[in-house]
């Protein structure tokens, strides 16, 4: 009898504990909860900053909270701290891709995706440095871009068939995509379109009676018209193909006044400057970032 009573008592206590046990922690639904989590972050833990930044991004994109600024700050700090050690490059690359979601459809998105490629060490060697290539191959790859831009599709296709040329162009594909140019595939497409189907790139059309007129198709200017940003991206790709150091400022010297903003060097150290985040202020206190 005593054994039965004891068993019954234990069972009642267990049931009571199940009823009164605290509920499983709920997902963040308020700005206060998000700030409380941010205040628990420890400088140096890039993964934690990234994970909370992703959570803030999810809440923002889902319309739950307006936490876009905090998400951006968390993700930038994640990249900064991951890049300092060089041991969390996958985290840094993932944070750049998350940042790109906040800037979809802008040139910032293309730049951030190029940064992610640069940071991710798992990328193929074709996306890496071009320093060990022959000068003749570099010149051929640069000429392939210039000829395509000028509408000389026949000559461009001849160069694009060379394996060394295609490999070099893959190495600058992030730049070719930076202004929405479609990357290497876009270069191939443009080379297939030209020369001009009406005048064959002669720029004039012959009419009856020996009269000449400006070509109605290409308007005397073969090749696809490029926006200023896309032109700057292609020119920078050519500079790199010809051996310009990647440490130089990206295309800033090529952008004349009034033709749009210059592209940036694909360098993660520029992130805090671009998004106005203090890289040294890594502790969250009362809604502000402070230096630890």
Structure description:
It is a single chain. The protein has helices at 2-20, 31-39, 46-61, 68-85, 89-102, 107-119, 135-149, 153-160, 163-171, 173-178, 183-193, 228-241, 271-275; strands at residues 204-207, 211-214, 283-285, 288-290. The protein has 292 residues and is mostly helical. The chain has a two-stranded antiparallel sheet. A two-stranded antiparallel sheet has the order 3-4. The termini are far apart.
Helix and strand content put the structural class at mainly alpha
Shape: elongated
The amount of helix comes to: 40-55%
Number of helices: 13
E-strand count: 4
List the helices and strands and how they pair.
Elements: H1 2-20, H2 31-39, H3 46-61, H4 68-85, H5 89-102, H6 107-119, H7 135-149, H8 153-160, H9 163-171, H10 173-178, H11 183-193, E1 204-207, E2 211-214, H12 228-241, H13 271-275, E3 283-285, E4 288-290
Antiparallel strand pairs: 1-2, 3-4
Helix pairs in contact: 3-4, 3-5, 4-5, 5-6, 7-8, 7-9, 7-11, 7-12, 8-11
